[in-house]
Task: structure prediction
Amino acid sequence: MLLTAFRGPRGKATSLSFTHVSSGLVLDALAELARRTGAVIMPHECPVLLQREHDRRHLPDDDMRAPAIVVPPADWSGRAIEQVVSPLPEPPQRPVLPRFAYHSLVGVVVPTDEPCVCCGQVRGWVYTGPVFGAEAPGAGICPYCIAFGKAAARYGATFNDVIDGDVPDEVAREILERTPGIPSWQSPRWLTHCGDAAEYLKALDADGQPTSYQFRCRVCGTSLAYSDFT
Ligand SMILES: [Zn+2]
Ligand SMILES: [Zn+2]
Result:
């Protein structure tokens, strides 16, 4: 810590400047000193800390007056100073979701701050749809581990079960092992059209009606759907 005293007229010290102050005990001592002397604290490029609203008008200019924060003397502490000088960082932006050729991701991912059970990374998202496979964890897999085939390779997991129609083996493997499942009440079915698997869009869920699972053909654009009951 560096303490600088600026001398005023007749050798009277009128200003004190502390620089390179570490947090913890030093800040507590500084807060105590300011509290006892009725001083204001002016952290560099941060709002000024006041002990009384009355002190606001003594600040040199409006740019300082407006954002100044009044902290009652009883609450002055190193922590109070720290909260102004080092506010909590902004919450992290969630990473972008992986894109799936055959699934919109509607209804099968939610935000999370927990690490993925499969890759151990904090990916910002967790998959909430169906998982098949005796060794596979039923929850906690991130969508990246589905997209990259990591969950399929590690646990023998699949996320879909029945493909309704004939598609090339490579497409079938992509749907079963590397595409999220359908959040359905009954055994889900993957619809196909024009010799390709269709793209799953969403589940339409009207009260008292069967849920309708909506797909679209990736080749001709035809809308496809099937329904089930709760
Ligand atoms: Zn993962
Ligand atoms: Zn088609």
Observations:
- The helical segments are 25-37, 62-65, 78-85, 143-147, 150-155, 169-178.
- The chain has two domains: 2-85, 109-228.
